[in-house]
UniProtKB/TrEMBL annotation:
Residues 1-72 form the GST N-terminal domain. Keywords: Signal. This is GST N-terminal domain-containing protein. It comes from the Eukaryota. Residues 1-18 form the signal peptide. The keyword Zinc-finger does not apply.
Length: 227
């Protein structure tokens, strides 16, 4: 599904921003997908590095971190904790976000207004993607809600936020004094919803706001190269 893959792509952008690695973004039209017709891999994210195609967000981050971060002990407790929470993002958190972002028709339109405003779409494409996409995702979100046994979208979102804060166990970041890959993964998928209605509700009704603000300050300005 396009939204979920887009969230994974944004987790990669958080990693690149934090480590000040310049990158360009190509927004993929969710209806035509013409921007990735050249690739045999028909999902996003796709990261091109010196003509090498990397796919799957976790694999991309693993490969990039191997290149730029110092080697750590393979059996360290901190590595195990980091790995556990990264899996939690992939297997749980992202599945909670979709039903919240598209909980109502107005929230679905709000989300697609953000998407089309930040994408490379013509005026006609913006209208088509915004209204057709919002309508489609509103109904898809209801199926996802049922598939993942979610009865109350907001309650599930708040519970996930509180679970993450509990996992911090009083630390500034899961990585201690500075973010680790799990911090960046959580921040990456929450960043696009932070100022949507679902994200505002999350910050107002849970303890995650202070950590999120620390992450905003730590990640800093985007390293994205404007087209």
């Amino acid at each position: 599904m396009w939204l979920m893959h887009r969230l994974f792509a944004l987790a990669i952008s958080a990693f690149l921003d934090y480590y000040d690695i310049p990158y360009k973004v190509v927004e993929v039209n969710p209806l035509s997908k013409r921007e990735i017709k050249w690739s045999d891999y028909k999902k996003v994210p796709i990261l091109m590095v010196n003509d090498e195609q990397l796919v799957d967000s976790s694999a991309i981050i693993d490969k990039m971190s191997d290149k730029i971060l110092p080697k750590k002990s393979a059996d360290s407790a901190s590595d195990d904790e980091e790995r556990k929470w990264r899996q939690w993002v992939d297997n749980h958190l992202v599945h909670v976000l979709s039903p919240n972002i598209y909980r109502s028709t107005s929230e679905a339109l709000e989300s697609f207004d953000y998407i089309t405003s930040n994408g490379n779409f013509s005026f006609t494409e913006k209208l088509t993607v915004k209204y057709a996409g919002a309508a489609a995702m509103y109904f898809v979100s209801k199926k996802l809600k049922k598939r993942h046994n979610i009865t109350d979208e907001r309650a599930a979102l708040y519970e996930a936020a509180e679970t993450w804060v509990d996992g911090l166990n009083g630390r500034e970041f899961l990585g201690g004094s500075k973010p680790n890959l799990a911090d960046l993964a959580v921040f990456g998928v929450l960043r696009p919803i932070r100022y949507l209605r679902s994200g505002r509700d999350m910050v107002e009704n849970t303890r995650i706001g202070e950590w999120y603000t620390r992450m905003e300050n730590a990640v800093g300005e985007s390293s994205r190269i404007k087209a």
